[in-house]
Specification:
306 residues, alpha/beta, five-stranded parallel sheet, three-stranded parallel sheet, globular
Length: 306
């Protein structure tokens, strides 16, 4: 059994006019069931080029999600009590869709969104993304308000894609565990989207979550395979990450995959390799599903009235 904190499948099938039960992408419900998936985050992502219509397109993708969920009797996780049942978590990737309005956080929460990646790679009203490089700033005052409001409601704050300054601003504002849903170790692979050891240690202190991303560029410089996924796990474990590690494969959001991994149908290869890595059964289960399930329960348990 495994849980995964990020895929872009719902946005992909919306664009390609496909279904969630079976499709030509990396993830569908048929393959998730075959791999004994427990929880899958489905991210709504809208390319910033669609601004200022991003919120409208996001609502259309959310509508697609609910249509597919109802058609396939998919359990949607909205409360801490739903976590043990398993199913789908609806998330948003990129705070652009808020259109600079705090009320949209509450509206999206009402629509069942339970996680928000504050930025994509670019700058938006909340703060700067990792793509901005050396010139990147941190969170804006609006971004700080968004983090506070998300925590009041019981939504998962996601710092993947955020600039390093933005990360530390979240750490200064946040009172709850936060996550990096699909980010790897910069020590193992020095890519701007990966986390420094200092960031990883901060997430460990916060009892948050780090989902290992399967994007080849984030795993290594040459041809990568399952062993490179394990290298990132090993390094984060060496920092004390036993209670925060998991997966955020980024399926349907990445152009390529590691050798031997065509999509979620090959998760068994990752699981088998992990189980042969010398970790105890309890450690492996934490990485596979317990850590993500635990942080979901912690954050969703704080849900507040609208």
């Amino acid at each position: 059994m495994f849980s995964d904190a990020h895929c872009d499948t719902i946005s992909r099938i919306y664009d390609n006019k496909e279904g969630l039960f079976s499709n030509t992408g990396h993830v569908d419900l048929k393959r998730l069931k075959a791999q004994n998936s427990h929880i899958q985050f489905f991210a709504v992502w809208v390319d910033p080029i669609h601004k200022p219509m991003g919120l409208l397109k996001s609502l259309e993708i959310i509508d697609k999600f609910y249509f597919e969920a109802k058609s396939n009797k998919l359990n949607i996780i909205k409360t801490a009590q739903d976590v043990d049942k398993g199913g789908a978590v609806l998330s948003i990737e990129g705070g652009d869709v808020l259109a600079g309005k705090l009320c949209n956080v509450r509206i999206l929460y009402t629509l069942g969104v339970r996680a928000l990646t504050l930025t994509w790679n670019n700058r938006n009203e909340l703060g700067d993304g990792a793509w901005e490089g050396a010139t990147a700033g941190g969170l804006s005052s609006f971004g700080r308000c968004v983090v506070t409001e998300m925590e009041r409601l019981g939504m998962v704050v996601d710092v993947s894609h955020l600039s390093e300054k933005g990360f530390w601003d979240v750490a200064s504002v946040s009172k709850r565990p936060f996550i990096a849903s699909h980010s790897n170790s910069a020590k193992v692979c020095p890519h701007y989207r990966n986390l420094t050891d200092e960031q990883i240690i901060e997430i460990i202190k916060r009892e948050g979550f780090i989902g290992i991303n399967f994007c080849p560029d984030f795993l290594g410089k040459e041809k990568v395979n399952v062993d490179d996924i394990i290298r990132h796990i090993d390094h984060i474990m060496s920092l004390g990450g036993e209670n925060v590690l998991g997966f955020g494969a980024d399926f349907d959001g990445i152009d390529g995959t590691p050798e031997g991994i065509s999509g979620v149908e090959d998760m068994y290869k990752v699981i088998e390799r992990l189980e042969k890595s010398g970790y105890s059964k309890n450690q492996s289960e934490k990485i596979l599903f317990k850590n993500l399930n635990r942080v979901l329960k912690q954050v969703l348990n704080f849900e507040s009235s609208y």
